[in-house]
């Protein structure tokens, strides 16, 4: 098994990446277990932030690195909250805080104009100076509902309405959400490209 560092301490992401990359004989380790601290994300796009995190983790450990940056884009808000999705309501904001701020920002906007999408950018580096990183993107289209619904998921899932399934993201079961979601799409593309590259 080859080791790869995940530039995140998120246990859910760690489990997911180990499940999909295990058959490729990769073992994914969280950066915190390797003594790597978080780095400031000062990029202006999802891909820039993912690259910043992956290069930092790889530089600190000497291992291949994987990082993702993801968030929600709302069209009528000109792409906000975007790269600031996790801290939309301010530093230390909870999911409930961010959802409340989003509903406030969209107050009075009719449903048909509340189009939005989740974006996920995954970056894989063979080493810290890798000049040709693998960059995989997943996009999940939907719209922002008038009120939250559902108990599954996290973040903006209770507000994200999925028209083709006529339900909110937080109402989907985990396996179904993984097949449909922005992260699920990006991870599937990463696996395909890693297999083709035979790293």
Description:
The chain has 199 residues and is an alpha/beta fold. It is 31% helix and 24% strand. The protein contains five helices and seven strands, in the order E-H-E-H-E-H-E-E-E-E-H-H. A seven-stranded mixed sheet has the order 2-1-3-4-5-6-7. Strand 6 and strand 7 (167-168) form a beta hairpin. The longest helix is centred in the first third of the chain and has 16 residues, at 46-61. The mean pLDDT is 93.
Characteristic key phrases:
seven-stranded mixed beta sheet, 199 residues
Q: Report mean pLDDT, rounded to a whole number.
A: 93
What overall geometry do the principal axes of the alpha carbons give?
globular
Which sequence of strands runs across the widest sheet? 2-1-3-4-5-6-7
Summarize the amount of helix as a percent range: 25-40%
How many strands, which pairing sense, and closed or not: the largest β-sheet? 7 strands, mixed
Order of helices and strands: EHEHEHEEEEHH
Total number of helices: 5
What amount of the residues lies in strands? 15-25%
């Amino acid at each position: 098994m080859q080791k790869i560092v995940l530039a995140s301490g998120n246990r859910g992401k760690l489990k997911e990446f180990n499940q999909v990359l295990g058959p490729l004989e990769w073992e994914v380790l969280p950066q915190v277990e390797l003594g790597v601290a978080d780095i400031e994300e000062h990029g202006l796009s999802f891909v820039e932030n993912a690259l910043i995190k992956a290069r930092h983790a790889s530089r600190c450990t000497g291992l291949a690195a994987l990082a993702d940056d993801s968030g929600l884009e709302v069209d009528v808000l000109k792409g906000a909250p975007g790269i600031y999705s996790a801290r939309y309501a301010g530093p230390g904001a909870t999911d409930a805080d961010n959802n409340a701020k989003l509903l406030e920002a969209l107050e009075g906007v009719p449903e048909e104009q509340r189009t939005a999408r989740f974006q996920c950018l995954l970056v894989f580096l063979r080493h810290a100076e890798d000049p040709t990183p693998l960059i995989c993107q997943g996009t999940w289209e939907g719209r922002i509902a008038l009120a939250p619904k559902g108990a599954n998921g996290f973040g903006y899932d209770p507000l994200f309405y999925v028209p083709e399934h006529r339900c909110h993201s937080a109402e989907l079961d985990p396996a179904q959400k993984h097949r449909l979601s922005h992260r699920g799409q990006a991870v599937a593309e990463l696996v395909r490209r890693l297999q083709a590259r035979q790293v």
